Amino acid sequence: MIPAGFEYHRPSDIASAVSILQEHGDEARVIAGGHSLIPMMKLRMADMGHLIDLQDIDALKGISLMGDTVTIGAMVTQHELITSATLANAVPIIKEAALLIADPQVRYVGTVGGNVANGDPGNDMPGLMQCLNASYELSGPDGTRTVAAREFYEAAYFTARDDEEILTRIHIPVPAAGTGYAYEKQKRKIGDYATAASAVMLRVVDGVCAEASIAMTNLADTPVFAEAASAALYGRALDDAAIGDAVSAAIEATDPVADNRGPVEFKKHVASVILRRAIDRAASRAS
Amino acid sequence: MSKMHVKMNVNGKEVEGLAEPRTLLIHFLRENLNITGPHIGCETSHCGACTVDMDGKSVKSCTVFVAQAQGKDVTTVEGLVNEDGSLGVIQEMFREHHGLQCGFCTPGMITRAHRLLQENPNPTEEEIRFGMAGNLCRCTGYQNIVKSIAAAADTLNAQKEAAE
Question: Within a 13 Å sphere around the CA of B129, how many CA atoms are in the beta-carbon half?
Answer without folding.
Answer: 8
